[in-house]
Amino acid sequence: MSEARARLLSTASRLFYAEGLHSVGIDRIIATAEVTRATLYRHFASKDDLLVAYLTQSDELLRARVADVRLAGKSTEEVIRAVATAIAEDIQRPGFRGCAFLNAAAEYPDPAHPVHRAVLQHRDWFLATVEDLFAETGKPDAGPAARHFVMLRDGAMAAGCLADPAVVCETLLRGVEGLLVYRSRDDLEEALQQQA
Fold it and tell me: Which residues does the UniProt record annotate as the domain HTH tetR-type (predicted)?
């Protein structure tokens, strides 16, 4: 990545996250990044291309964080907890404004728009990753557990900038812990029968 492209993407990412995708115009990005209009359009054919690059970069960073946790030699349940803890840490960072992907989806609701497609691509990956993790724990309900985890995350991301982030994060982590100890009714009945 050239220095100019990196500066443009870094500047745009910071502005898009802090102020919103529609509200930040190309002129503002050019002025803040201190580049020419020609430089911007040499690297990004349109604002939509820049928006997709912003979301793609965010997606790649999250994928790398999850990969790092998975490679740390922890048990699968510890990896799930670590992913939830990383989400909680993000929520408590200064300047937190919610989930970049949920914010983008709200601003670009058309499912055919490239920004919306980038959001869905990220969410599909995240759900599949969490489902794989729950499947590795041996739980019979990996799909529902993963969807529950993603809903907990989405709710925490929304509530994190509306309520006390510490309480939101505590609730998120408690919910994820509940998912880890939950067993289906059949498993619970079987365990109780074995104890009898």
Answer: 2-62
Regarding the domain delimited by 47-195, which CATH topology (the fold level of the hierarchy) does it fall under? Answer: Tetracycline Repressor; domain 2 (1.10.357)
**Interatomic CA distance for residues 187 and 189, integer angstroms:** 6
Measured CA to CA, the distance from residue 91 to residue 166 in angstroms comes to: 9
How many other β-carbons are positioned within 10 Å of the β-carbon of residue 111? 10
pLDDT value, residue 192: 60
User: Domain spans of the chain?
Assistant: 1-44, 47-195
Dig out the tokens for 99 from the structure. Answer: 């989930």
Successive 10-residue mean pLDDT values, the chain, 196 residues = 89 96 96 94 95 97 94 92 96 95 97 98 98 90 94 97 95 94 61 64
